[in-house]
Design a protein that fits this description.
Layout lengths: L4 H10 L3 H10 L11 H14 L5 H13 L3 H13 L8 H10 L4 H18 L4 H10 L3 H9 L10 H11 L5 H14 L4 H10 L4 H14 L1
Helix pairs in contact: 1-3, 4-5, 5-7, 6-7, 7-9, 8-9, 9-11, 11-13, 12-13
């Protein structure tokens, strides 16, 4: 175990809660092991670790992230994402390969959504020339988590959202039977409706979307009306 990870593991073991771990494991369909450390306490642990240890340089960071990703307890993956979030605005161009690795390994919504929105989204703001090459590859991959990421990376872009790109990707995935794709389509449209409700209404009315996607897309608009 990397010397940077050893104190992280010690903090996690010291604060483990078997009852909460069992609940978290059940909620995630028994896919992962847990220490049972809830988000508020995890944040306190992260704060303590970051204050005690010098943050690793970029050369060592990828190896640490990959080791954290290989460990069985899900809290290690959450910590890895927190580490990268601290460096998100300073990510190197090659970082997208690490993000793709994380999206495609131990894939579930709890990690994929964070990576897509808080890491990939910030990355593409800095390297906008990479958007089309990367997301086109992801869209063609057949991997639902890469496709979901291609939809969600703009979730916080608000008025800077490239609606042409977003809508083209939605239409390419509109026939998907996958729950996580249908849900993502509705989610990103609902978020867009906060800054441009008219364009969302027009898009939903003009195109055939799954009932789930349509319901999620119009949820905020219908509630306000």
């Amino acid at each position: 175990m990397d010397k940077y990870i050893i104190p992280v593991a010690e903090y996690f073991r010291k604060n483990a809660n078997a009852e909460k771990a069992a609940g978290s494991k059940k909620y995630m369909l028994n896919q992962y092991e847990y220490f049972g450390i809830q988000a508020p306490l995890r944040k306190e642990i992260y704060k303590q670790i970051f204050s005690e240890q010098e943050f690793p340089d970029d050369q060592d960071l990828r190896g640490i992230i990959e080791e954290l990703w290989a460990l069985p307890e899900r809290e290690f993956q959450y910590f890895a994402m927190s580490m990268l979030e601290k460096r998100a605005k300073y990510a190197e161009e090659a970082s997208i390969r690490l993000y793709e690795f994380m999206i495609t390994h131990k894939s579930w919504w709890d990690t994929v959504d964070f990576i897509a929105i808080n890491l990939v989204g910030i990355y593409f703001e800095q390297y906008d020339g990479m958007i089309i090459p990367v997301t086109e590859k992801w869209m063609r991959s057949g991997n639902i988590w890469l496709q979901r990421s291609s939809l969600l990376f703009q979730l916080k872009y608000k008025k800077q959202t490239d609606t042409g790109l977003l809508f083209s990707y939605i239409l390419r995935l509109a026939g998907s039977k996958e729950f996580f794709i249908r849900k993502a389509i509705g989610w990103v449209l609902r978020e867009l409706s906060k800054t441009d409700s008219e364009i969302v209404i027009e898009f939903v009315n003009r195109h055939q979307l799954s009932p789930l996607s349509k319901r999620e897309a119009l949820k905020r608009i219908n509630r306000n009306q």
